[in-house]
């Protein structure tokens, strides 16, 4: 008879094993349900081996294969023409060169890679690095010169930026990080890493003609010998173009910068540039449809959510009103297709929208209508058209009041935080080399967060899941309670995987894709540039008084202090403007 099993879970990622000890053999049950009986020594080996597994030892792959893309021009063709005689390919077949075992994010070290197999005629432009606390998910661009214009040249020499020789960090032997010295008129777009002190051969890498490069900035911290970056020490950062938007031309090469100093110093590593503004790698309409079928996000609402999304046309058709300054007593019903909304101009306060006046109708409209709701898709080039951003906009007729959490008590903040007309969005960033989803942006009022593909929750294939917070509709990649504030009191953002969910792929409308010219007809409401709700005329002091009434002594002053310190975006008495007035319409997400 086996003894009662001792049952424990090894702290390994991502495959957990449950281990049942018996006599001379150990039964190992993986999370996939596979059982295997191993002699004790072998099982202990597995134990040892797996406990040293780091996140980076696993390669991240989207849960489902990518779709077959409809025919088009350059989208998902694997290659991009940057002009000036330079073509680039995205290489994900990388081989490990060197790794540190400590320092950097979570003090787990970082790994340095270079392309393993170079396609015919292509050359390495730099190596890739990432922290060990994340699954392997990387690429670098490799370049090919058409031979006519010397877009690429070998470096004159290398400078040693840093080596691990003098440091005591745990690492796989010694590592040496080299900066190529480019010929006149050329720039380095990446480093070479070696495990010996000898300089790499000049032929190892290529520098890029300056007119095919753009200014770069340090982005995320990849590694440094310490547990946090040291502004005076050695640091490795990922690199991105300094200027980013739908019309800017900087193309990240996927490389890193290694330097002594913090992010403020100017970088020795440049980005690439889509020198002739060639947007032929952007998806066409059919390809956008396929992208949405592949990646359209799911949005979960809280089970207590009273203020759900609606389509814009439903909102108009249900009696939303257009107000004009000076004629407040005479609002005009909005045509269901928005055709009588003022077009263009600026957010000058001359017009605004509001709910119907009739109390019954107001109540109905405020609640939205999920069943008939639609999301609105804006497709735009980013990173010099090496990526496509698909911004998926969600409209809510009403943003409910904020709620505060005080210890274990949730307090409704009366009217504070309420506004009419709420626009939130999720942005999918897709590589134009292969159509792979790279990362997703979740808007949270005036800001938001990027979440890398490996940190997303997926449902039905490669569709990311987002959670809209109760009343405020801020979007998060994980369900749970998010508190804003310090200590015991904070604004509460409850999210929940309830049964109330929107499949944005079911009902999306492509409302803008400027790079396609007139192929996409922009609805009239998109070019309405004023606010989607009125300036709400509640008195914050009055609202605080109401909240205080419901509370006992010491809580009162705590709440008062807290509410007074809330940022404007929460107090936000003004209804927001529509999607095309937001910074991300032309710029990168914040
Ligand atoms: C553990 O690693 C050792 C050496 O790297 C290897 O020989 C052994 O087969 C591995 N054991 C298992 C169970 O994977
Ligand atoms: C634009 O790029 C595509 C491939 O990415 C290439 O075939 C085409 O020649 C380029 N157009 C121009 C004007 O350079
Ligand atoms: C919008 O609807 C009105 C009728 O309500 C119609 O006359 C007009 O042609 C429509 N406009 C568009 C652009 O569909
Ligand atoms: C929670 O929601 C408020 C407004 O409802 C927002 O301003 C705040 O940024 C959110 N908190 C976090 C941690 O994102």
Structure description:
The chain is mainly beta. The chain has three domains: 48 residues; 195 residues, no CATH class; 301 residues, no CATH class. 11% of the residues lie in helices and 35% in strands. The strands form eleven sheets. A six-stranded mixed β-sheet has the order 34-33-32-29-28-41, with no helix packed on it. Strands 24, 35, 36, 37 and 40 form a five-stranded mixed β-sheet that branches. A four-stranded antiparallel β-sheet has the order 1-2-3-4. Strand 2 and strand 3 form a beta hairpin. The N and C termini lie far apart (62 Å). The structure holds 2-acetamido-2-deoxy-beta-D-glucopyranose (4 copies). The site of one 2-acetamido-2-deoxy-beta-D-glucopyranose has 3 residues, from loops.
């Amino acid at each position: 008879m086996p003894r009662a099993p001792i049952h424990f879970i090894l702290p390994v990622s991502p495959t957990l094993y449950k281990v049942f000890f018996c006599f001379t053999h150990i039964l190992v049950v993986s999370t996939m349900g596979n059982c295997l009986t191993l002699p004790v020594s072998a099982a202990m080996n597995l134990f040892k081996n797996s406990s040293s597994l780091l996140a980076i030892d696993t390669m991240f792959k989207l849960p489902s294969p990518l779709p077959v893309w409809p025919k088009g021009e350059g989208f998902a063709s694997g290659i991009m023409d940057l002009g000036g005689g330079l073509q680039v390919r995205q290489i994900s077949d990388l081989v490990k060169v060197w790794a540190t075992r400590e320092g950097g994010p979570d003090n787990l070290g970082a790994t340095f890679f270079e392309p393993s197999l170079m396609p015919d005629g292509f050359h390495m432009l730099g190596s890739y690095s990432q922290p060990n606390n994340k699954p392997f998910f990387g690429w670098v661009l490799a370049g090919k010169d058409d031979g006519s214009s010397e877009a690429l040249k070998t470096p004159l020499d290398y400078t040693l930026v840093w080596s691990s020789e003098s440091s005591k960090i745990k690492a796989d032997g010694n590592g040496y990080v080299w900066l190529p010295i480019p010929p006149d008129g050329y720039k380095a777009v990446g480093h070479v890493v070696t495990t010996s002190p000898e300089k790499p051969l000049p032929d190892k890498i290529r520098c890029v003609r300056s007119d095919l490069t753009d200014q770069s900035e340090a982005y995320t911290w990849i590694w440094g010998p310490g547990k946090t970056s040291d502004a005076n020490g050695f640091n490795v950062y990922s690199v991105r173009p300094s200027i980013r938007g739908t019309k800017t031309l900087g193309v990240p090469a996927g490389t890193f910068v290694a330097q002594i100093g913090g992010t403020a110093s100017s970088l020795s590593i440049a980005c690439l540039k889509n020198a002739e503004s060639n947007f032929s790698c952007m998806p066409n309409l059919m390809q956008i449809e396929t992208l949405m079928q592949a990646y359209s996000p799911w949005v979960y609402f809280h089970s207590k959510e009273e203020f759900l999304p609606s389509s814009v046309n439903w909102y108009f058709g249900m009696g939303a009103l257009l107000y004009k300054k000076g004629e407040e007593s005479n609002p005009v019903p909005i045509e269901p297709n928005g055709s009588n909304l003022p077009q263009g101009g600026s957010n000058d306060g001359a017009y605004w929208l509001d709910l119907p006046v009739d109390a019954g109708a107001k109540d109905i409209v405020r609640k939205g209508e999920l069943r008939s709701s639609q999301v609105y898709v804006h497709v735009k080039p980013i990173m010099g058209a090496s990526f496509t951003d698909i911004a998926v906009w969600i409209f809510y007729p009403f943003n409910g009041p904020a709620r505060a959490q005080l210890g274990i008590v949730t307090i409704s903040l009366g009217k504070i935080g309420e506004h009419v007309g709420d626009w939130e969005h999720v942005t999918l960033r897709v590589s134009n080399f292969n159509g792979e989803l790279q990362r997703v942006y979740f808007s949270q009022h005036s800001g938001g967060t990027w979440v890398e593909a490996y940190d997303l929750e997926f449902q039905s294939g490669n569709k990311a899941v987002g959670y809209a917070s109760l009343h405020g509709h801020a979007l998060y990649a994980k369900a749970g309670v998010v508190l804003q504030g310090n200590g015991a009191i904070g604004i509460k953002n409850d999210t929940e995987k309830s049964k109330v969910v929107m499949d944005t792929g079911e009902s999306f409308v492509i409302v803008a894709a400027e790079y396609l010219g007139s192929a996409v007809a922009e609805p009239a409401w998109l070019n309405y540039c004023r606010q989607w709700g009125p300036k709400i005329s509640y008195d914050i002091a009055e609202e605080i008084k109401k909240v205080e009434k419901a509370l006992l002594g010491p809580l009162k002053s705590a709440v008062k202090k807290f509410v007074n310190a809330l940022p404007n975006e929460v107090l936000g008495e003004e209804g927001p403007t529509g999607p095309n007035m937001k910074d991300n319409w032309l710029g990168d997400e914040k």
